[in-house]
Amino acid sequence: xxxxxxxxxxxxxxxxxxxxxxxxxxxxxxxxxxxxxxxxxxxxxxxxxxxxxxxxxxxxxxxxxxxxxxxxxxxxxxxxxxxxxxxxxxxxxxxxxxxxxxxxxxxxxxxxxxxx
Length: 116
Prior knowledge:
The protein is an alpha+beta fold. It is built from 2 helices and 5 strands, in the order H-E-E-E-E-H-E.
């Protein structure tokens, strides 16, 4: 009986940690989308204010990137590419300096988000 109780306890612990991992991953994807939207809005506003053109879109996340790293005061976490469907994205004729999307990427880096 004790062995069965221990087995059930261990299995339920594994299930709970798996569930909390999925919830945590979902929260991280929401944080990524929020930061990406903020950066898209910010780059768009800055570009328009100096007379530049922008192209706002949703970037499908099936690119060459394997994961996204998020750095915060509590450490660095990784979001797998499978968990990310798309992210808000912007290019700017004035702010990107011949590298489409670079102003958006730099904004995300300032928020602690790096594409791996």
